Amino acid sequence: MSMLIPHLQHATLAVMGSEAAFPVRRVYCVGRNYADHAREMGASGREDPFFFAKPADAIMNVADGQTGVMPYPSCTNNLHHEVELVVALGQGGRDLTSDEAAACVWGYAIGLDMTRRDLQGDAKKAGRPWETSKSFDYSAPIGPLHPVAQTGVLSSGAISLSVNAAPRQDGDLSDMIWSVPEALAYLSTLFELKAGDLVFTGTPAGVGAVKRGDLMSASIAGLGSLQVRISD
Ligand code: MN
Asked: Which of the two ends of the chain, N or C, has the fewest CB atoms closer than 10 A to its terminal CB?
């Protein structure tokens, strides 16, 4: 079929140890999934998980060993970093059990859920949606995918982020309020999950602002590290 505008490029992720790419369908994000971050954002206890989404083309691929360059976004004076374990699904379904959800995981990556915190605060106060604060261009820098067949299941291990070599975020994957299978199972009651979906699984405490020129270095045990500089 001919296209009336140039055919749109599909978002993809690089895969460690493979020439083949992983096509990205949707990008879901879990909010407040570490107790210490939930507290710093004003929540308490084990509330039901909640979700938002980013468009697939908000992904900014960072190749293994490279430093990505993220443009400082417009319309904010408070750009925040959130380091997150990203889960890529090789299959999906509806109303999954935790065991079924766990079996959907194809691989993992390190991602940054970059946030215009000032616009998010305005949206929360006004009861408005979060897209302008969460779903902007380049808001999802992400490293290459590591197949679960190689890493094994990641349910514990250090997750951290530094800015210009100064520690900012430091947590453990086992501190998630809703584990990866639990969060996926819950998400599958709201949306039919499909192969190609990515899920950002939440961030530990210590989120904060970055400014032009800053270098973020994120690490997750078993996945190496991800470097992203904010452009001048
Ligand atoms: Mn987040």
From this structure: N
Q: What is the pLDDT of residue 1?
A: 82
Which residues constitute the domain of residue 34? 12-230
With cut-offs at 50, 70 and 90, classify the pLDDT of residue 132.
very high
Q: Supply the CATH number for residue 71's domain.
A: 3.90.850.10
Percent of the chain with pLDDT over 70: 99
| pTM as predicted | 0.96
Q: Please tell me what DSSP assigns to residue 165.
A: T
CA of 133 to the centre of ligand 1 (A): 11
Distance 6 CA to ligand 1 centre (A): 33
Q: Which residues have C-beta under 5 Å from ligand 1, the single-atom ion? A: 82, 113, 203
Distance between CA atoms of residues 170 and 195, nearest Å: 31
Which residue in the block uniquely carries the two structure tokens 């992983």?
A: 22
Separation of CA 225 and ligand 1 centre (Å): 18
Alpha helices (runs of H) in the chain, residue ranges in sequence order:
35-40, 98-102, 117-126, 131-134, 148-151, 180-190
> Number of structural domains, the chain?
1
Query: Ligand 1 center to residue 219 CA distance, Å?
Result: 16
CA of 111 to the centre of ligand 1 (A): 10
